[in-house]
# Entry
Amino acid sequence: MPVQYAPEVRLDKESGRANHQGVVAFISGIEYRDLDDMLRDIAPTRDEVAERRPVVLALDRVEDPHNLGAMLRSALAAGVAGVIVPDQRMAPLNAAAMKASAGAAMRLPIARVGKLSEALYQMKERGYWVVGTESTEGDTIWSFDWLKPVVIVMGSEGMGLHPSVKEQCDALVSIPLFGPVESLNVSVACALTVYAAAMQRAAS
# Structure
């Protein structure tokens, strides 16, 4: 669990001026799932993975709670079966994230793992395609074939995909940009990507 040292005035504010004795702790409002348990609930066998073609979302070091909440909201709306997050350098599911998710955080199974790259390898062993998002590489989200079991991996706001995570990707997809900007906000990119997959599946 990350520890941060803060001045007393901030502790007073965060605790509502309760008798905090110099310590304030934040806990998640939800219970994270064990990855194996979550995947068994989604599709317990490799054959059922192939038959059901689930979409799972993996978030690689997304550090803004508002982005996290917005991504969970988009994922739930697009029919994503579950979400995987790392336990380090990841935004907490705090009040800001919960509010931005508009209740999605309470309704989506979310698994927290030690190393995202190892979790993605495990997903590949179960029959999923791991699809990473990059701003300039691979097929566009509109041309990619989403009609298979996939894990969509969204990178961090500033650094994108970690090299060890990118190495596990079977394919990369990008979002074409037509104006003079270098990239989209990660939560916007996530919404476009999960809906590209959902729309293609709905039309098949």
Observations:
- Residues 73 and 101 are 5 Å apart (CA to CA).
- The first strand starts at residue 55 and ends at 59.
- The chain has nine helices and seven strands.
- The beta strands are 55-59, 82-86, 110-113, 129-133, 139-140, 150-154, 171-174.
